[in-house]
Q: What sequence folds into this?
């Protein structure tokens, strides 16, 4: 055999040996599987059943993943709501997940609004099944009124009617400026996330608004916006603001009030340490650098409780 390959192909003995080994391996690779299968008594049908089980597991995992997308740590509380006013927390309490709730709020912050119930479907990836379940609780109209306006040509002939859409605006509720959150404040045209937070921060530092004119003291709040705000807000007649105990407050607490500067806070503390507690606003006027106008502004926020 080697002589045949040597004479016919001109191959060396080592090359012929390698080629022979390769041929043997190829033959065995073709024959052995058939021999093994012929002795196997195992039924191949179990592969089909295993495949069905795997498909079922995949389906269950997909279902669980979809359900997890709408899980929330906030208990579900179904109630009537207006998507133009609801905060992210309120939306989550209705069943929306945090991502979708924030997406609705961001949509409003960028100037978007919901005129009819079906406008909620404009929110990307929103759960349509959840909207259907909440449909009767959405405080928006189902549809808008359409009025056909016929336009006439100069010669008196009519043309195809032009559809005019009339949307009945939702009357926004009047709210208490001392309890309103950012979502409520942002229903006023011209107030976004920054100004609404600024209004609430100023309210907290004050101790509450006792006069509507205090809104004009807020940095960068336009007077036109304030005029719009005044038509939708109110201050309760019996409202009592949070007060600052002047005989116990430290320098930082005093200076944290918008009507007391850091210099005045230091002088108030120094005078108190030297002369004792303040009893009336007249005592406060004895402090160097504190004027009558300063006292008039802050007196409603002061508590004269003694230090001892």
A:
């Amino acid at each position: 055999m080697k002589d045949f390959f040597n004479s016919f192909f001109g191959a060396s003995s080592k090359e012929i040996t390698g080629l022979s080994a390769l041929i043997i391996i190829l033959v065995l690779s073709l024959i052995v599987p058939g021999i093994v299968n012929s002795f196997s008594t195992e039924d191949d049908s179990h592969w089909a059943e295993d495949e069905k089980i795997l498909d079922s597991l995949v389906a269950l995992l997909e279902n669980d993943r979809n359900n997890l997308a709408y899980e929330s740590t906030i208990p579900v509380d179904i109630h009537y709501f207006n998507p133009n006013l609801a905060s992210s927390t309120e939306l989550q309490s209705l069943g929306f997940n945090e991502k979708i709730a924030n997406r609705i709020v961001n949509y409003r912050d960028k100037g978007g609004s919901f005129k009819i119930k079906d406008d909620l479907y404009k929110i990307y990836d929103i759960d349509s099944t959840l909207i259907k379940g909440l449909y009767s609780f959405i405080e928006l109209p189902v549809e808008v009124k359409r009025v056909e306006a016929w336009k006439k040509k100069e010669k008196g002939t009519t043309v195809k009617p032009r559809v005019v859409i009339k949307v009945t605006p939702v009357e926004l509720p009047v709210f208490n400026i001392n309890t309103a959150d950012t979502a409520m404040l942002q229903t006023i045209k011209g107030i976004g996330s920054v100004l609404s937070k600024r209004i609430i921060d100023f309210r907290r530092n004050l101790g509450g608004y006792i006069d509507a004119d205090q809104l004009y003291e807020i940095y960068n709040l336009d007077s036109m916006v304030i005029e719009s705000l005044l038509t939708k807000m109110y201050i309760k007649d019996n409202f009592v603001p949070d007060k600052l105990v002047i005989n116990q407050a430290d320098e930082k607490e005093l200076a944290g009030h918008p009507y007391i500067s850091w210099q005045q806070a230091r002088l108030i503390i120094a005078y108190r340490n030297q002369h004792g507690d303040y009893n009336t606003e007249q005592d406060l006027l004895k402090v160097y650098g504190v004027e009558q106008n300063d006292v008039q502004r802050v007196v409603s926020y002061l508590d004269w409780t003694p230090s001892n």
In short: The chain is about 45% helix and 5% strand.
